[in-house]
Amino acid sequence: MNHPAKQKWSADDIPGQVGRVAVVTGANTGLGFEIANALAARRASVVLAVRNVGKGNEAAARIAAGTPGADVTVQRLDLSSLESVRAAAGELRDAHPRIDLLINNAGVMYTPKTTTVDGYELQFATNHLGHFALTGLLLPHMLSVPGSRVVTVSSISHKQRADIDFDDLHAQRSYDRVAAYGRSKLANLLFTYELQGRLSASGVGTVAAASHPGVADSELSRNAAAWMRPLLAAAGPFIRQSAAMGALPTLRAATDPEVVGGQYYGPSGFGGFKGHPTVVRSSAQSHDTALRRRLWTVSQELTGVAFPLSPPLS
């Protein structure tokens, strides 16, 4: 339960981040930019891990303009390519002896059927597999860091037609863009809960948590079906919130001293659409132990990345 004084948690509640290194994926726009901007304002050393370095440099300049002296760097990262993930992780490890925060924020939504260079379905590859691999490759630089956290951004869509079909993970037989997105967001939660189980079993202090932004203004929904756009526009004032508000659940999961491993943060309002961040519930399916362990095993096989952790005790 949240402390009463924290019911309307805001960016003003973020503790000082001096000396902390935060890697934020997809940080050049939308939610990722707001997350990075808020952390930089609290004096974290922030790495914008982005696919487009030019846009990343523009975002870094905007952050520096708002926070003179901000420590912001840009790292090229294409989550849809495991080669790019490995290269970025290597460069990040070389540049930073310690990493305090890894915020797995980047994502794609409702994309047309696309196969990545590795042969995987784009939404599942980008939203889940890329972040799974990045986390595993960076974790050795986090495990000995006091207060280190991995925060993975999911979505209320993890309940929407979401199913992990291990016989057709990459939608080779059939593809539904909404179902594929829901699958990838369910995978984000299954990953978080299994990761926390393994961190606990290994006796380390690193925490894994998850978040969702509700319905926030961002570029993520640009691939929404044509019939959905007028509905989103009409419902906007009632269910949508700014990117800055949408970033708060992730920021709370990343910085609030009261966060416990395995928690899931989202907006407090009706339906989880908007509001101040609080602990929320995810679907029963996201807590399926057998499902999360099978996904973990398959994800290791597909990415070739093994984590330096013991399996959960139960």
UniProtKB/TrEMBL annotation:
Source species, domain of life: Bacteria
CDD domains for the chain: retinol-DH_like_SDR_c_like
Entry keyword annotation includes ATP-binding: no
Domain Ketoreductase: 20-150
SUPFAM superfamilies, per the entry: NAD(P)-binding Rossmann-fold domains (SSF51735)
Coiled coil: none
Keyword Chaperone: no
Entry keywords, A to Z: Oxidoreductase
InterPro entries, alphabetized: KR_dom (IPR057326), NAD(P)-bd_dom_sf (IPR036291), SDR_fam (IPR002347)
Family: Belongs to the short-chain dehydrogenases/reductases (SDR) family.
Name of the protein in question: SDR family NAD(P)-dependent oxidoreductase
